């Protein structure tokens, strides 16, 4: 029987691209057709109910119970026209993916008949079996139940035969158990804070929306190869495998032509995305071998985040139809480009102004500078919280791994804006500004170009870069829920804006003119936050040294990065803005550590099994072939001749034996460390034990396994090799 690996390779080579049919030539014919949009609501809802929903969307409040039945019944009628038979509350538990519990519309009634029913109670509230979702101890200490409730700001949608209703997930005691609830609160906080500050510039501004434009990177792997790699199947990444001769060192341009099969896959998921109202624009891009990217138009953050999670789900399903598996892991293959999820972030007003875009005159530019500088100050003050927001076992492999953003948080702003900030720093004089100072400043602020030439993706190494009219947070992991980083970012900026408002008002109260007060305060912030600004190469060793001198943190692993979540200052910050309580922060900290431990535990077990059941037996098989060969030589030639002639074989035998031995010893030691770690009760200590005592064995075992891969006959190597995973098409 041929080796599973070869069968898999044959399968891949025999595959043809699947044909994809467009529902119509015009995207507008099918865009958002599977979404219960406001337009659809108007058509399906009685007037009173429609107004009530719109009001809760605009005010961000829950739907009145009295209206819920009407809305539910209309929603059901609409869903039935789309072929739906079931409904589910769709929510974002802290496991990282989304969860659903499907119920049928079908309800038996007397006389052996049945009707399709969905009432208001089921719309506004449901009780999923909460015990299976992480709660960080909240539900152990309290009542062991949680409920989901509709978030009307996210529209309902139909996928397949299911009506999905986006919901928040809350414990009966009121604590949030998901990502959506605190995200909504953080967005409310930034709206309030930013709108207040906007009053200095434009009284017509009554609402500020934080926008999010995510760029999702991912790898594709053929399902046959996936199935032949137990490590990728279990952990999402290759735990062993020698790097291919060709890989990262090649220029990006090399990876230009996307295989037909992948194009088909992209077309199909895009059609599905468009039907769900996700504004994907065709931008096909191959980043590394078998790594691709998808970047829709930006949207309001809550919706954008729902859309990201939804699309990840859709992509996973569509990939299967095309005989692919999709890998969202941040580092599926060591030594190769990792996957991120760049979070482009900005603030937009109800008057249609992007607060982070330079404008046409000194006034709009002073507004721009206000939001720009306050953001930088917020990052400076809360860099560790931002770092914690992207911490995960899988992202640890990526951050700081040479071609990814480093674990040190810094801000890139480009030379033109650096000059501008220097100019303010030099020219603003506390107390008495000369008319010359003022004119000079006004002139130079007015001259900020609308297109900043050095801000268009020039510095790829910065984790937080200003890219002309938005900031791009690049350190977010490809598998992460964006909510975590967006909660952190919006909270810290909101808090900074609140402080700013207070301090500027205090200056004005002392008789300083408004513009001067703003500039004086901005100058102070520029000075205070200077250390976070870095324009150089973020990957270099020198930056790590320089950052240390500047007092910036370099938190390389998740357990240490997470510690800030339960610090006093963090609790005060999130409490002040009413986004997360002390109990919620502690629960989240606990859950993230548990997730970390679980991931490392699975990786360690998978690696142990892999070397034990696949690598070592193969190595022994090859050893036996060599031994057989040496024996044969001895039987044909004289002893002296045989010794000389079989030097290569005996040398090989020795090397192979050494590597087998090392693997055996090291996986035994890893197992011991795991056992020790598992006995630790305190979550933090346990996570550190996994990080410091178990994890280091991964690379050591991989090293010896990869050596064996190079020594052993290709004919009997059981696992698809990295070059096959990456280049077979
Ligand atoms: P590129 O980086 O390829 O030059 P863009 O600058 O247009 O492309 O945008 C990159 C990403 O930033 C896109 O995903 C886009 O949706 C997002 N983006 C653009 N403007 C904003 C904004 N105001 N707020 C949030 N995201 C934005
Ligand atoms: Mg980008």
Description:
The chain is α+β, with helices and mostly antiparallel strands and 729 residues long. It folds into 3 domains: 31-178, Glutamine synthetase, N-terminal domain (Ubiquitin-like (UB roll), Roll), CATH 3.10.20.70; 187-580, Creatine Kinase, Chain A, domain 2, CATH 3.30.590.10; 595-727, Up-down Bundle (Four Helix Bundle (Hemerythrin (Met), subunit A)), CATH 1.20.120. Strands 8, 9, 10, 11, 12, 13, 14, 15 and 16 form a 9-stranded mixed β-sheet that branches. Strands 1, 2, 5, 6 and 7 form a 5-stranded mixed β-sheet that branches. Helix 3 (47-59) crosses helix 4 (65-81). The protein binds adenosine-5'-diphosphate (ADP) and magnesium ion.
Gist?
The protein has 729 residues and is α+β, with helices and mostly antiparallel strands.
What is the approximate shape? globular
Strand portion = 5-15%
What is the total tally of β strands? 16
Let me know the largest β-sheet.
9 strands, mixed
Could you report the average pLDDT, rounded to the nearest whole number? 91
Name the helicity range. Answer: 40-55%
Compute the gyration radius: what is it? 29 Å
Task: Name the structural class.
Answer: alpha+beta
Report how far apart the termini are.
Answer: 24 Å
Count of the separate structural domains:
3
CATH fold-level assignment of the largest domain: Creatine Kinase, Chain A, domain 2
What hetero molecules are in the model?
A: adenosine-5'-diphosphate, magnesium ion
